[in-house]
Amino acid sequence: MIQFEITTSPFSISFKQNGLELVNLRIPASPLKGLWVDDEVVAADFPDFSLNLKKCSESSSAGSEQGWILTTTPANISAMVAAELSGHWYGGGELIHQQFPLNKVMMQSGPFQTFDNGPTGLSGKLTPAWFSSNGVLLIADSPVEVGLNQPPAEYPHFKWSFATEERGAFSNRPFRDNGSGDKSITFKGNGLALKIFFTGTVIEATKKLIAYYGHPSDTPPDELFAKPTWTTWARYKSAINQNVVMQYAEDIIKHDYPFNVLEIDDRWQVFYGDLHFDPERFPSPRRMIDELHKKGFKVTAWVIPFMDPKSQAFAESVRNEWIVRKRDGSAYLIQWWQGNGGLLDVTNPSALDWFFERLRNLQVQTGLDGFKFDAGEACFLPADAVTYREIHPNEYTQIYVDAIARQYRLTEVRSGWMNQRAPIFFRQWDKTTSWGLDNGLHSVLTGILALGLAGYPFILPDMVGGNEYDEKASAEMMIRWTQLNALLPAMQFSLPPWEYGEECAVLCRRYAALHAEFAHRILSLARETVSTGVPIIRPVFWLAPQDEVALTCDDQFLLGNDILVAPIVCPNQYLRDIYLPPGHWRDHWTKELFKGAGVLKQYPAPLDRLPFFERC
């Protein structure tokens, strides 16, 4: 039985079960002017707003949970609620510095909206829901600013900027907890609307979140799971042309790597936004794509919602008001990572029809099989922009992704806001060529865990080895990155492993083949998630929800319930401790049998070995 206690000064509501505090809600407003309480309602009046907390019960496929709905009025007045953390916390979606669990970060309060490289650490796929190891689930139904274990006020605040010197290091977005955080999730906004559910366990809280937002009713195409995608970006950046693409395909085949999709990334067109190949770079795109098809590749091209002011698309969209505008009716030029441009108004159905019709025409002309859709984050929609239909910036992301998912299955997107039902792959944000949790190799793992727990089962890890912007990958990094990817839902290459030496080429090929070998298991789990919503990739606490070691484990994962993977995510490491959940586990390579629950100390992990175990 959940009970609550109220403290009036300062005002707080503490929910407890069997003497254990599950969550304490603090309302930092004073003085309290009025209070009315019974078993199912708490009503409190403060000088600027009123708070109403009402008991509710919800039934879903995840079961029946006791819950409360918290609202503040009036709708145009800002209010703040701080939920003191108890236990370990998860959810929220994708961060740049992706610690796991969330108690390990200190994130300053800021608008909870999808970002490209956000100033507080928010990234492109977010869900406004958080839950604890005690089974408490908090959902924000209203637009909010969110702070997570906020650091002291003197910590630096960063701008959203494409300039490196202004935006702060990845390791500071969000900051790593050092014990000085405020131990709360803070919600701030006009007319707050929050839901609080008490589900009993961390597993039931996850299932409740998934039931609340929904899950895909179908899977992406099987071949996207089975074989790696190869993209031109990290290897060539924008220095691509027809000969480069064909030689890249030949090299993949020559080195005997599995493949499926070949993505032609930036820059295949003359002006961004125009949807025809640059005739100088790609004199015969149809012939090129036909030849790639004969070699066994599917071919996609990179697409964005931005339009260069010199493009034909920009002129046409301005003429028809298919572009995001200023209040005076002129086109709003948006800053993005390749300059300034117009932004497609996705709230206008005619604009979307025009956008997708042009894409279909390009497919007819060239034989392209699909598209890689980039951007779509809320941060690109200015607060004073005018759209066909007035929306909150996060709705831009939601509409953009939903529209793509209705049109394409052989595709990927990198942003998401309440798009959990989309049966397509969501790509992780661009990874740095580094090892750490601050957007490096280790964050591939924690990012997949975080997104799975936020209701996104179909995650495409970013390219093996990262993007090689300012850093260069080593052979060791390429090998360990490929090993991590081998038992994730999908795999993506750009940097050619054979350019890092013979050992790298051999071992990366071996683990690309391992991914193909386990594709049937991955596909089976993908179909399971269509039925149940349960993530394909699961934290180890999924099999040990009361175990403190499991609840904080950030360097292992489960593929379903029967495969435990313990990759190496640090350089020069050839031994590691491995936590085994309850049950009996067999080393895939040596066939040695072990009993959980417990930790295997200093288990061998030579460079050619990905430690993983199968439950028996």
Write up what this structure looks like:
It is a single chain. The protein has 616 residues and is an alpha+beta fold. It is 24% helix and 30% strand. Helix 11 runs parallel beside helix 12 (502-517). The chain is globular and about 75 Å long. The model has no long low-confidence stretch (mean pLDDT 96).
Keywords:
alpha+beta, 14 helices, 616 residues, eight-stranded antiparallel beta sheet, single chain, nine-stranded mixed beta sheet
Q: Could you write a compact summary of the structure shown?
A:
The chain contains 14 helices and 34 strands.
Most strands sheet: 9 strands, mixed
Strand content: 25-35%
The secondary structure category is: alpha+beta
Our measurement of the CA-to-CA distance between the termini, rounded to an integer number of angstroms, reads: 37 Å
Mean pLDDT: 96
The Rg value, from CA coordinates, equals 25 Å
- State the low-pLDDT regions, or none: none
Q: Give the fraction of residues assigned to helices.
A: 10-25%
* Spatial shape: globular
Instruction: Work out the helix count.
Output: 14
Count of strand segments: 34
What secondary-structure arrangement, pairings included, does this model have?
Elements: E1 2-8, E2 11-17, E3 20-26, E4 34-37, E5 41-45, E6 50-60, E7 63-73, E8 78-84, E9 89-95, E10 105-111, E11 122-132, E12 136-140, E13 145-148, H1 164-167, E14 175-176, E15 184-190, E16 193-198, H2 202-213, H3 222-226, E17 229-231, H4 233-236, H5 242-254, E18 261-264, H6 285-294, E19 298-303, E20 306-307, H7 312-320, E21 334-336, E22 339-343, H8 349-366, E23 370-373, H9 393-407, E24 411-413, E25 416-417, E26 425-427, H10 441-453, E27 459-460, H11 475-486, E28 492-493, H12 502-517, H13 519-532, E29 537-538, H14 548-551, E30 557-559, E31 563-565, E32 575-587, E33 593-604, E34 612-615
Parallel strand pairs: 11-25, 17-18, 17-28, 18-19, 19-23, 23-24, 24-26, 26-27
Antiparallel strand pairs: 1-2, 2-3, 3-8, 4-5, 5-6, 6-7, 7-16, 8-15, 9-11, 10-13, 10-14, 11-12, 12-16, 13-15, 20-22, 21-22, 29-30, 30-31, 31-34, 32-33, 32-34
Helix pairs in contact: 11-12
